[in-house]
Amino acid sequence: MNSWLNAQDAMGKQFCHTGFPNGKHSVKAYVLLYYSVFSQARFTNFATQTERMKNIRITSGFSRLDKNQKINLVSSNVANPELFGNTLLGTLHRDPLAQKLYDEFSENTIGNYYFPYGVAPNFLINGKMYMVPMVIEESSVVAAASGAAKFWAERGGFHSEVISRHKIGQVHFTWNGGIALLKSIFPEIRRQMHFNTERITANMVKRGGGILAIELVDMTDKIPDYYQVKATFDTRDSMGANFINSCLEEFADTLRDFAAVNTELNRYSLQIIMSILSNYTPDCLVRTWVEGEIKEGAHSYDDHYTDTEFVSRFRTGVRIAQVDTYRATTHNKGIYNGIDAVVLATGNDFRAIEACGHAYASRNGQYSSLSEVEISDHTFRFILEVPMSLGTVGGLTHLHPLAKLSLQLLGDPDATELMMIASAAGLANNYSAVKSLVTKGIQKGHMKMHLLNILNVYLATDDEKKLAIDYFKHEKVSHSSVNSFLESIRI
Ligand code: MEV
User: Fold this and answer.
1) How many angstroms separate the CA atoms of 100 and 442, rounded?
2) Is the CB of 330 under 6 A from ligand 1?
């Protein structure tokens, strides 16, 4: 075992010394490197690494080190510092200016973490054809999206409408003077809040957005003395987090100052607890659907089931996700396979999008499917209604070179159009997943897509891969079957 790992390690070192960036080396070499680093960490050095980690001291001033110093320091905490450091260095962009840009997206950056950037063609949405960029590491997601997109493009495509685009922010505060007094003075405070935020909102107002409403919310039935200023915003084509948070902090200052000088209010205690936008945006909502005729006895949806049988099985599959939380979570995860991939590709905040969607999926008190099936007048309709606050200006959207490219590929959509595109990708992935699940099952197709990953694990050459792909057209894919196949052709 040890000698094998040492051999791997030596190969890894050799590889590193060749200076591997810039795509000159084969996947095999990368896989070799991956295994030489991580099999060591996982299998041989587990105990020593654990010991090593126990001895790591509190680090001060880490952020002030330059990148090489950071890499050296981090690497000194693992078994093979040279290999670890070289692996990180190998991920850096060849253009120092581009690397600087990536570094500055975050802090303490010591490398780049690559995700595949793919494209799903044939997305016909409201009559317009898109090639949809998708950033995702899971094999079969892009294939599933592409398959569904093509299938539905031949049947009228995706239909989509944005129902509303409002966003919410809150100032959370406590006040022990009772609701009546606060309520009576609030219109004046609200006027002051509008006035004090004018310099923040001027540009947004020019673009047709701004503050839509500022309300006082009594939350004292939940927590004594707890109130909110709840504001509604239209942030046009920006996601608007910074805009909203700046307005909210100004509201908080206004409220605090007003309460301090007003002789009726300053007899009581007012404390601002926090001011922050809400990522729950149920009023930033898009509805996307596909629909098709159900023909008795026909096989247009599936090779094995007639239309009537297929739509019935499909509807039951979705119904199950509406009533069972275990299934709903996986079902919605399949939707976010598509949505997240587009959100990431366009430089948007996938954590916000996911958090919001899952909260929305629970809006009736039970976590449930975000999609639904309607069958009426011989028509099958598959619908996704999902909130998402996306931006096409600001944030990383035009700063990350690939996000910019994605938006260009999509024809520089506004935020409304991007909501439709991302939700169509979600619906496409959901359609493919549920269709596979209620017909032939998911694993056969999934493992076929995963075959290349398994072949890479076993360090297959390009010729071996060709033979394997051919062989596994008719065989079940698993780690052991791929290993046995490779052994049989390597003899
Ligand atoms: C896998 O990433 C996603 C699925 O599990 C979704 C689903 O079960 O509906 C296939």
Assistant:
1) 42
2) yes
Q: Which of 250, 244, 333 is nearest to 280 (CA)?
A: 244
Domain that holds residue 342: 118-163+282-441
- The pLDDT averaged over each successive group of 10 residues in the chain (491 residues) is 33 35 44 47 59 83 96 93 96 96 96 97 98 95 97 98 97 97 98 98 97 98 98 97 97 98 97 98 98 96 96 98 98 98 98 98 98 97 98 94 97 98 98 97 81 93 94 90 94 80
| Ligand 1 atom closest to the CA of 140, numbered from 1 | 2
Record the pTM: 0.86
CATH label of the domain that carries residue 240:
3.30.70.420
**In whole angstroms, what is the distance from residue 491 CA to residue 489 CA?**
6
**C-alpha radius of gyration, the chain, whole number:** 27
Residues 63 and 37 grouped into a single domain: yes
d(CA 366, CA 322): 9
Number of folded domains that form the chain = 4
Q: Distances from the Cα of 7 to the Cαs of 82, 373, 483, in angstroms? A: 16, 56, 20
Same domain (yes/no): 486, 378: no
DSSP 55-113: TPPPP-SGGGS-HHHHHHHHHTTSS-HHHHHHHHHTTS-SSHHHHHHHHHHSSS--S--
Instruction: Name every residue whose Cβ is closer than 8 Å to that of residue 270 and which is 6 or more positions away in sequence.
Output: 173, 174, 175, 177, 255, 256, 259
Strands 226-234 and 284-293: unpaired
Between the two ends of the chain, the Cα-to-Cα distance in Å is 22
Say what the pLDDT of residue 307 is. Answer: 97
Tokens 């957005």 correspond to: 209
Q: Which two tokens stand for residue 412?
A: 């520089």
Residue where a domain stops, chosen among 232, 258, 277:
277
Q: Ligand 1 within 6 A of 144 CB?
A: no
Q: Which of 140, 333, 339 is the pocket-test mutation for ligand 1 (most atoms within 8 Å of CB)?
A: 333
Which ligand 1 atom sits nearest the alpha carbon of residue 331?
A: 9
The rounded distance, in Å, linking the Cα atoms of 340 and 338 is 6
